[in-house]
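Model the whole thing, not chain by chain.
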Amino acid sequence: MIEFLQIGLDGLMTGVVYAALALALGVVFQGTGMLNLSQGELAVVAAYIAWSCVQAGIPIWPAIAIAVVASAALGTALYQGVVRFVPPHREDSLMTLGVTLLLGLNAIISIIWGTDPRGFPSPFGTWVVHLAGLRLTSQQIGGVVLVAATMLVMALLFTRTTFGLRLRAVAQNPRSAAFLGLRSGLWLSAGWAAACAVGAVAGVVAAPTLGLSPAMMTVPLLMALAAANLGGIGSRVGVVVGGLIIGVLTAIGGRYIPGLGGDLNVVFAFAIVIAVVLVKPAGLFGRESVVRA
Amino acid sequence: MSAPVVHTEPTGRATAPDIRPRYRTPGFWTAVVAVAIAVAVPFLVSDYDLFNLSRVAAVAIGVASLNLLTGFSGQVSLGQGATFGIGGYAAMMAIRYLEWPVWVALLAAIAVGALVGFVIGLPAVRMGGFNLGLLTIVIAALFPVLLYRFSDFTGGQAGVTLAAPAFPSPTDSLTDAQWSYLVVLTLLVLTIAFLDQLVARRTGRALSLIRAGRILAVSNGVDVERLKLQFFVISSVLAALGGAIFAFVLGLVVPESYPLVFSITLLVASVVGGSRSWIGAILGAAMVVYLPSLASSVIPGEASAYLAQLVFAVVLGLCVIVASSGIAGAGRRLASSIERVLRERRATAPPTPPSTTREEIR
């Protein structure tokens, strides 16, 4: 029983990374209608920026702050430089564009930093807490706290500020928002910036455990895609809950279902998604969209 | 395809191929000349160049299969590289472990491709856009992982190798490389001729109807899901065939050849070459084969592969944003605008249809 709880808890700790990435996917999707397949690579860029800052002698926390700000700037640049030229109703083009960014960012990362895995220092120290037979590392606790804090900030930003209100207005109804004098391009790039900042936190939290390499976020991205589908990509609460569920269930499934484990957990994650989507096509928290023929 | 183009197609000149016999279209003669040159090539260049050209032809079959899916059936698959790899593994393992002859192994690859296409296609035809992309990207990402996982069976890192060339030359007057190139070229020409017939006929017109509007297609008696499934299976079969030929040309299959990036590269080749053109498929495949070696002449070492990847990404981005019909489409547009200028010189010519309409027909 203790083992079961421990695995579930570890899964929850991994799940926060999926949740953060899925939130980034969701924010971009709601705004631009694009499934940003390069979100994982963007998180890797953030982790490498933080690593480079640490190598240059900057302490770890300022380095992380620099990485988050730089990622937000990169997100804005990508929106303004590339994404805004593709109209939101062309699903196939947007999808191809997501692949393009994935390919391009992966190449740039590999050229600048090389493909050898590197160690990433944990910003949370190396202590361990024992609680009722369960074991938690500082990295796990710190990661959860950092991601939870980021999500709280995002939730407050989206629901309690005019900034968030305007972001949501542009995402939900671009034309009405334009009539109200909001420049949609500006606000969509702000949405990209927010998403990339959240993704950056995910990258920095994941890097110490996964080891820093260009392919670091491939599996977490697939998990986040599963999470977004599971929770319903139109719902910000849904994607986060989806990420946590995927984290816990794949950890438990990987341990107790024979033949699973490692990267194959992705198969299990998508099996869960398919099972749920058959019953609720829009995901657990998503709203069905009705189209008039 | 933008909306106006799609709407002109069914009402416009959908019957044009019947009015103008195929042997009188410029495309047909271009193809004849291209094949004639391609047949002459093995006697002019070195065996190493022939090896590369054989790779281009094999990859071109894979890209053409993806063209059928993206350009004609309107489904973007990110997993075609995995199907390509499955075909390669099926053929190589049939030779290695079952000791089947090469041609039977090719048939085995085709059968496995059909099976894979059917299994993936059943859910895929009900999806479009993002969900299909999601399904196929997961398949593409998992394929190499599975190869490592079942390494007792697949040979793991070392893969499966051929003991002897797959297409040994039957005569002394041709080297193995020359013979192998000619065989692969023949298979490519057959594939393209088959695809060209497939999309020109009734099924092709039904597909344009589906792209114009699903409801329109259904009300005209087109069984949309069945047709899309058929095309998905055909596309997978051809991808597996291309993969098997590619494996035979190389003489080995290793998991390293089929990462997620390879599947994406096939999509790049399809979009950049022009996803509604068979010549585009060959151009795209040539880019996939030659760009990495061009890049390695610019920067030596490991970075060159990533430089090539970066170029792919930039070119793909440009195609998505600026020229959605790829190199072949741009060439065709140029040709038709020249034709229009010539026709306007002849004064009282009727207004030419928009250039893209021609593209729709052939």
